[in-house]
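Sequence in, structure out.
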Amino acid sequence: MSMICPSLPGPLIMRTGTHLRMSSVSGFCHGIHKWCSVINTSQARSFVALAASPRSLSYPTNREPRSVHTSSRLPPAYPGHIPLTPFENGLLAVGSALMSLIDTRRADMVAACGETTAGSTLVKLRDIMLESPEGRRILKEVPRINTQTLDLEKLRSLPENTFGRAYVGWLDACNVTPDSREPCGTILFQVHYIDDPELAYVMQRYRETHDFYHALFGFKVSALPELALKAFEFANLGFPMTALSLGASIRLKSPQRARLWGEFVPWAARCGSHARCLLTVYWEERWEQDLDEMKKEFGVWDPPAGITIPRPSRVDSL
């Protein structure tokens, strides 16, 4: 039996049967890496859409075609939602995790891995938010974070060491905007594979507030600080994807990898498990709060030196 995906280069043909053999695991990984290097975002979206849509299968000529029943598939629960069967969810979870490790720049695959592996973690986080006054209001008001909802010029006018000023300072220092770190644009940035709309928003909120964590600690956007922050997020929020991301540490240089596991991961484990769940923070209401007071309230402290952006006030005092 074969399934041909016309939207993929080649085309990509997946075959099942005893005639398929792999000479070695390394050969398989090489083939995945070669495919990953040529597939682009739109093709990946087409592949996922095909995986989540009724199949058009080819059959041997001596058998009558049979229809594929799709009545058991759930209808979309919100715009952009792609319902998956448990098998499809598992397949996408494994494939997206593998591709994310092969090419860490594939933010769309990181996003897919996060959604398909979140499972009961989202339920736990939603319940934690419901227990918090701020968290309940977030779930009720469903605020969004982007350049249309934020007044960046107003934030730039705030006093030094306020959270709002630290956030825009971080944006400027890293040359990013609230939109530019979205994986592959607005469409793919939306949640696709989580069936419950409220849980989908919890995932969306996590993605949109991720940069606030960067600003809180002053983390740069390079590989080492990103992995340190992922370790903190795993300890604080529990998303499996954040733990899986640490597998990318094999790409770091040996001294960086040693610092990650010897200094930053232990800091992340202690700080993240001690801190308040950051998904319960209504960040947009705290722009004028002093950054040091905010850290004290949340129960967090600065990471080891070497991966953060110095605060302007500190630079001016040198």
